[in-house]
Structures are given as structure tokens and as C-alpha cells.
Amino acid sequence: MSQATLEEVVPAPQLRVAAVSRRSERIFWSGLCWAIAAVVFAGFSRTYFLANYFNGPPLSLLVHAHGLVFTSWIVLLLVQTTLVASNQTKVHRKLGMVAIGLVVLMVVLGTTAAIKMAALGRSPPGAPPPLVFLTIPLFEMVTFPTLIGLGLYYRKRTDYHKRLIVIATIAISSAAVARLPLSIMRFGPPAFFGVTDAFMIPIVVYDFATRGKIHPATLGGGLFVIGSQILRLIIGGTAAWEAFARWLTSFAA
Predict the structure, then answer these.
(1) Please, what is the Cα angle at 112 between 251 and 155, to 5 degrees?
(2) Which of 62, 61, 90, 97 is nearest to 76 (CA)?
(3) Is 16 a domain residue?
(4) What per-residue string of b and e applies to 200-227 under the rule 16 or more CB within 10 Å gives b?
(5) Would you say residue 6 lies in a domain?
(6) In this structure, what are the phi and psi dihedrals at residue 173, rounded to the nearest 5 degrees?
(7) CA-to-CA separations, 114 to 131, 249, 252, in angstroms, rounded
(8) 81-139 pLDDT tens trace
(9) For 153-172, what is each residue's pLDDT tens digit?
(10) Domain limits at 180?
(11) How many CB atoms lie within 10 A of CB 166?
């Protein structure tokens, strides 16, 4: 359809409003993804990205592999949002296939690293003891691929797709949030879960501003993440979980 024909069907003022709406949408999602990336960098700067400048301990091969793969996900997210913003949808779809393999690696390495760190008796500052803390990364290795899988399933429904992918990324960013040099982090998991979940507030506000109500993907994905966090807090200190965690970490000793 030519521009003249399109303007005959849709008045020029409405076309301009639609163009502004699309630009605003791209700015919002790109800005949110860059904000998540900034938090991830800030959280892991002392222990990973800039560890040499902070005289951090030597990093094992497993930690390097884990950091590389998870960083690759953040980079891929930024690339994908940039491609969408520049209307490079074909390239965006092709890179979506790369995401599948990357998610599998993230789950394998994330699970392995979590168990290994717990076996070594390590957890972030302000976090509960390692065996209790183990619930947090292990549950993330369930919530993250579940939301990503739903996002890929709804890849033709872009409104669902982008919300599920971004919320999945927000969920795993709690590891970076927990390492931010903020005094509130001394309160442990409730604090860094709360700060992490705050990244979903802009999505809710955006939904109401653009749709007049919360999007089903925002509601479902958000409740799924928050519900999993509450469940972790409940079971993390139980005797049954401690016994399971001791058994699990015995393989990494």
C-alpha cells in the first residue's frame, strides 16, 4: 500500500500518533533493558567484570564460563532490542534461535555453579548461609527457562513475547542486585528480591498508560516470579531443604 493510499485510509494525524507510539514503545523497552544491563554490570563489577581492579580472588574456570554465558544473554537482549527498534526483524528472529542454545547453557552452568558455590560455603554478603541461599539460584534456573520458553512460544505475539523475555531477565538479575553496595542489602533476600521486582513496576505503569490495564503477560509473569521468591523464602530454612542441599552439594565436594 502506497503512502498516499495509506493516508486515504488512515488520516495523517493518526499516522503521526501511531509513529510516535511506536517510537515511545521502542524507547521504553530499550531503556528498560539498558537499565537492567547497568545493574548487572554494577552488581558484578567488583567480583567479576572489574575484579582485577578490586583485588578480587582468582576466578575459577567454572566462574568464568558462568559469567561469560550469562553476560552473553544480557548482550543478546540489548542486541535484540536494538534490532527491533531499527526494524531488523528478520535478523532478530534468526538470533532468537541462538537464544535457545544459550538458555540451555545458562541453566546447566547456573545450576552447576550454584551447587559448587554452596559446597564451598560461599554466598553473597548479607545472604543467608550457603545451603539456605542455594534455593535462590536453583529456583531461578526453573523460573528463567520457563518464562523464556513461554516467550518463545508467543514469539508471534510480540506484546506477550517481549514482556515475558524481559521479566525472565529481571528474575535472574537478583544475583547482581544482591551484590550491589547498598545498605539495604544487609536485610538479605527480602531486600534484593524487592529491589529486583521494582524493575517490573515500570512495565505495569507502561501497561496502564498504553492499554488502560495490566497486560496478562505482565501479570502472569510477575506473579510467577514473585511466587517463586516467596516459596524460596519459605522452604529455604526447613530441615527437609537443608538435608536435600547437603545431599546435592556432596557431589561437588
Answers:
(1) 145
(2) 97
(3) no
(4) beebeebbeeeeeebbebbebbbebbbe
(5) no
(6) -75, -5
(7) 10, 9, 10
(8) 988 888 888 888 888 888 899 999 999 999 999 999 999 988 877 788 999 999 999 99
(9) 998 999 999 999 999 999 99
(10) 25-252
(11) 24
Distance (Å) of CA 105 to CA 39, 80, 133, 206: 22, 19, 22, 32
Amino acid present at 203: I
**Dist. CA 117–CA 119, nearest whole Å:** 5
Question: Do the domain assignments include residue 5?
Answer: no
How many structural domains does the chain have?
A: 1
18 occurs within a structural domain: no
Cell of 147: 518464562
| Cα–Cα separations (whole angstroms), residue 170 to 9, 33, 221, 227, 229 | 41, 9, 11, 14, 13
Cell of 222: 510477575
> Can you state the angle between helices 189-197 and 216-235, rounded to 10 degrees?
180
CA distances from 82 to 22, 31, 144, 153 (A): 14, 10, 22, 21
Burial 143-163 (b: 16+ CB within 10 A, else e): bbbbbbebbbebeeeebbbbb
Residue given cell 529491589 in the structure block: 195
Burial of 179 (0-12, 13-18, 19+ CB in 10 A): buried
Apex 101 CA angle, 90 and 139, nearest 5:
120
